[in-house]
Amino acid sequence: MPLLDYPESFCELTRQLRRLPSIGPRGAERIALWMLRSPHAHPKALAEAIHNATQHCQSCEQCGFFSEQKICSLCADETRSGKEFCIVERVTDILPLERTGAFHGRYHALGGKLSPLDGIGPEQLRITELMDRLHVERPSEIILALSGDVEGEATAHYLAEMIAPWSIKITRLAQGLSAGSGVEQADAVTLQRALMNRGDYSL
Ligand SMILES: [Zn+2]
After folding, report:
1. pTM for the full predicted model
2. Out of 27, 51, 117, 151, which residue is the most buried by the measure of CB atoms under 10 Å away?
3. Domain boundaries, the chain
4. Tell me: the pLDDT tens digits for 117-176?
């Protein structure tokens, strides 16, 4: 006597859901049940949204951010300053910086940071694209918005060397200890930066 299980189409749905990040067997089963039974599930709209987003979203040829055109709305915006370039590791770093409202220049996502142990060298990052943009767009300042860990440090150093012949001002975001982490947990590089960039705390 075979053990009772869900019908095959239901099992296939849970198998597909389990392929999603952070979804385990129980989570997949819960979502599949909700899709079958909830009047709010709208599975057709969900399927269409997945299809449309994966078909139409591509990487902006300039900054690397998501776009439905070859050039994203940010890069196409001629009111933005072309004088400052902000270099970030991941495309997902762009929106948080943009939301600060403090930056009105151009972005360039590298697609990661140098990490020889993980097999990520300069060729794996969008550095050639960056150099091409410098030729064309000629910014006067480059802001390195890279993480303060060893790989971010190596990437910043590498880029600074690459950009040095251009006589472009290079700046780096002030880095401190991240919120919720103390001196004990911070690595040496983070601490050094935190010390060097210490701000006036006198009352
Ligand atoms: Zn763009």
Report:
1. 0.78
2. 151
3. 81-174+181-196
4. 999 999 999 999 999 999 999 999 998 888 878 898 899 999 999 998 888 888 887 665
Separation of CA 67 and ligand 1 centre (Å): 7
> In this structure, what token pair is assigned to residue 173?
């975001």
What integer pLDDT is reported at residue 191 of this predicted model?
62
Our measurement of the distance from residue 76's CA atom to the centroid of its chain's CA atoms, rounded to an integer in Å, reads: 20
SS3 state at 53: helix
CATH code for the part of the protein at 81-174+181-196: 3.40.1360.10
Q: Smallest Cα–Cα separation from 107: which of 125, 128, 132, 80?
A: 80
What's the CA-to-centroid distance between 157 and ligand 1, angstroms?
24
Which regions of 39-196 does DSSP assign to beta strands (E)? 58-59, 66-67, 84-88, 106-109, 141-145, 169-172
Q: What is the CA(89)–ligand 1 centre distance, in A?
A: 14
